[in-house]
Write a structure and sequence with these properties.
The protein has 425 residues and is mainly beta. The protein has a domain at 9-29 and 175-425: Aromatic compound dioxygenase (Protocatechuate 3,4-Dioxygenase, subunit A, Sandwich), CATH 2.60.130. The protein is built from three helices and twelve strands; from the N terminus they run αββββββββββααββ. It has a four-stranded mixed sheet, with helices on one face. The longest helix has 10 residues, at 376-385. The two termini are 36 Å apart. 41% of the residues are buried.
């Protein structure tokens, strides 16, 4: 896949994407995932469906009203006296006869309260609580939305940003998010920023890094890597309800090696030798080519989410398989070949994958397979590179699945949007 198309969208256009609002912390009614950023062993895989609020109406028995069994009393008239003289006068027509029985004497049918009561809301799976009375189910517009509702609805699991299921980010479907168990800020990495960060404005002869599809590879003749859909969610660590406080409108840069273990943008052909321990060549100032595969940037949406379509990273000797992460305020200018901190910078770290998943991907097919077996010395280096346990690492591990030749990975970063944290030794 070519990465040499001329950059056509610059900083002004990017700022237009972000909008005049700049950095926004959004607190939706429902939240959703996450990494334990105290131990940071990565979130467990839970995809709990949010409880759909149902309307379990009270069953009402319709019974007939009691029948009128007695007719109204007839009015009788006694004839007036017709005899002249002072004889006695008979009763007038206004004297009523006996009244018949009224309708209240009839039997009354059972009231609606005698009907069976529908199941309580607690029988609805994850989403509604017993706050909803029996037989009333829930209000679909307020109860259990997103599976982690605010207010009196607690929910369970479910998706952040008011999502009860998968949502879309650009062209990619985002799975529901787990709740992060703690609002503690995510850890930085001992390796810091690393030598190979490229800001979108740093070069004019490359593609616009603000894009979702970042697939590509060093050797165009080699097999393509395993496709990976990578979703990241940014949460505000200063909020006690960080699961419901995504950070919208910040720039997220990521970069990693292609399936063969090569970085884009640096060095001349032959400079990178993934089978050998990295010895400083190419260096951070050797930004010699316009390749930009497996690196890109996005602006977080209202749910604090960005998504990338890439290839699962390969490995190079001396480092564990990892992905670099840098978060910047919108409109932050390029600083050149330096470590970013302060002045628009927010957070830098690296994250990893569970060893079992990486092993499964790398042993599935080329271009990974040829570097995992056959050469005992190379195989030993690979076995070390998939452990995700190198000294000083962030302990951040993505939640990921590998099915049907596709990796779907999610990573949540909990950070202070008003701080600047880098890490490194």
């Amino acid at each position: 896949m070519s990465n040499n198309k001329k950059k056509v969208i610059g900083r002004r256009e990017m700022l237009r994407r972000v909008g005049a609002g700049g950095l926004v912390a959004v607190a939706p009614a429902c939240g959703g995932e996450g990494d334990d950023n105290t131990s940071n062993t990565g979130p467990s895989v839970t995809t709990n469906p949010s409880g759909d609020a149902t309307s379990n109406g009270t069953s009402t028995a319709t019974s007939p009203t009691g029948s009128v069994t007695s007719p109204p009393g007839a009015t009788t008239s006694s004839p007036l006296a017709t005899s002249p003289g002072p004889g006695p006068v008979g009763p007038t027509a206004s004297s009523p006869g006996p009244m018949g029985s009224t309708a209240t004497n009839g039997p009354v049918g059972p009231t609606a309260t005698d009907g069976p009561v529908g199941p309580t809301a607690t029988t609805v799976p994850t989403g509604d609580t017993a706050q909803n009375p029996g037989g009333m189910g829930g209000n679909p517009s307020t109860d259990g939305a997103g599976g982690a509702g605010g207010g009196t609805d607690t929910g369970a699991g479910g998706a952040g940003g008011g999502n009860s299921g998968p949502t879309m980010n650009g062209e990619l479907e985002v799975p529901p998010w787990d709740d992060v168990p703690s609002c503690t800020a995510s850890k930085t990495d001992g390796a810091g920023q690393g030598p190979f960060f490229i800001h979108n404005e740093e070069k004019d002869d490359d593609v616009d890094l603000f894009r979702q599809d970042i697939r590509g590879q060093y050797n165009p003749d080699a097999e393509e890597g395993i496709e990976m859909h990578l979703h990241l969610r940014i949460l505000d660590s200063t909020s006690d309800a960080c699961n419901m406080t995504p950070v919208a409108g910040v720039e997220v840069y990521i970069w990693h090696t292609d399936g063969q273990g090569y970085y884009s943008g640096f060095g001349n052909p032959g400079d990178q030798t993934p089978d050998e321990p990295y010895a400083g060549v190419p260096g951070p100032n050797d930004l010699n080519n316009a390749d930009r595969f497996c690196r890109g940037a996005q602006v977080t949406d209202e749910n604090g989410v960005v998504s990338f379509r890439s290839y699962f990273p390969g490995w190079y000797n001396g480092r564990d398989v990892h992905i670099h992460f840098v978060c910047l305020h919108p409109g932050t200018d390029s600083k050149g070949r330096v470590t970013y901190r302060g002045d628009g910078h927010v957070f830098t770290t690296q994250f990893y994958f569970e060893p079992e998943l990486t092993e499964k991907v790398h042993k599935s097919r080329e271009p990974y397979l040829r570097r995992t077996q056959g050469n005992p010395q190379l195989q030993t280096a690979w076995e070390e590179a998939i452990k995700a346990d190198e000294m000083g690492n962030s302990e951040l591990r993505a939640k990921a699945t590998f099915e049907n030749d596709l990796v779907v990975a999610q990573m949540q970063m909990v950070l202070d949007p008003d701080d600047s944290v880098v890490g490194g030794f």
